[in-house]
Design goal:
The protein is an alpha+beta fold and 259 residues long. Helix content is 28%, strand content 28%. A hairpin with a 7-residue loop joins strand 4 and strand 5.
Length: 259
């Protein structure tokens, strides 16, 4: 990622001027990313191809002001951190769904050593609602975060279980992977009827006091302990909500992949 791409990426996440990938800088970048770039699966329901090349990720997230799911968001965030001098390991994880684990390479997370040698840190801007700040990857005690109380626990085979408020979220391998190794499961997630990403649309991002999401045709806003839902009855209302809350301009409403 060249200097121009880094500058454009930083503007996309609301940061002007130079950035660093030391401890303070990593936390700032992580939070800024979550506040501005949504976790979304709209491409799957718009019949848009999902590409994990650097050029296509930059075009989608930075130029077109879109978001993506884990392979796209953490894939691109890793390139930014590396350009800023951090050491990044791409690691595979399996997500817990109703007390069972998803398939291998179900999720992409990042283990980051800062440009100042700090860390390692578990960074994840592609899981939706999760930790606001990077988590200490080698810490085995409780880690308070604005997103909840997190704990990383060693389990069999050397894997690490990530828990939030006592509930397992996903199981992380320690082994470093290349982004190319995630492409088959990325394709499965985008095409299989068994993938929850093909079942319906989601677009969600962090806000200063909670989250804002569009799930199908429902606008959901949470904050200060409250939750407000609004049904978006017309196509125009759906498209306007994407523009207002996410800066996403669509020509048509994303519909279920089967339609």
């Amino acid at each position: 990622m060249d200097d121009q791409a880094v500058a454009s990426y930083l503007r996309r996440i609301g940061l002007d001027g130079p950035a660093t990938a030391d401890l303070a800088g990593l936390s700032s970048l992580h939070r800024a990313h979550l506040l501005t770039v949504p976790f979304e699966n709209l491409s799957i329901h718009l019949d848009e191809p999902i590409s994990l090349t650097e050029a296509d990720l930059l075009a989608k997230v930075v130029t077109r002001n879109r978001g993506g799911f884990c392979y796209e968001l953490n894939g691109l965030f890793a390139l930014l951190l590396e350009a800023l001098g951090a050491r990044v390991r791409r690691v595979a994880a399996r997500v817990y769904e109703q007390d069972r684990l998803g398939p291998p390479f179900d999720h992409l997370a990042l283990v980051v050593t800062g440009a100042d040698g700090s860390g390692p840190w578990l960074a994840d801007v592609g899981f939706g609602s999760h930790s606001v700040c990077p988590l200490r990857f080698d810490e085995r005690g409780e880690q308070p975060d604005p997103g909840g109380l997190f704990e990383l626990v060693d389990v069999e085979h050397g894997d690490v279980e990530v828990r939030r408020d006592g509930k397992p979220q996903y199981l992380v391998e320690r082994r470093e992977r290349s982004l190319a190794e995630f492409r088959p499961t990325c394709w499965w997630q985008a095409t299989s009827p068994e993938s929850h990403f093909t079942a319906g649309t989601i677009c969600s991002r962090l806000t200063p006091d909670g989250r804002v999401s569009i799930s199908g045709r429902t606008l959901i806003r949470t904050g200060d302990g409250s939750r407000v839902e609004e049904q978006l009855v017309t196509d125009g209302a759906v498209l306007a909500a994407y523009r207002e809350h996410f800066g996403i301009n669509l020509e048509r409403v994303p519909e279920r992949a089967s339609t």
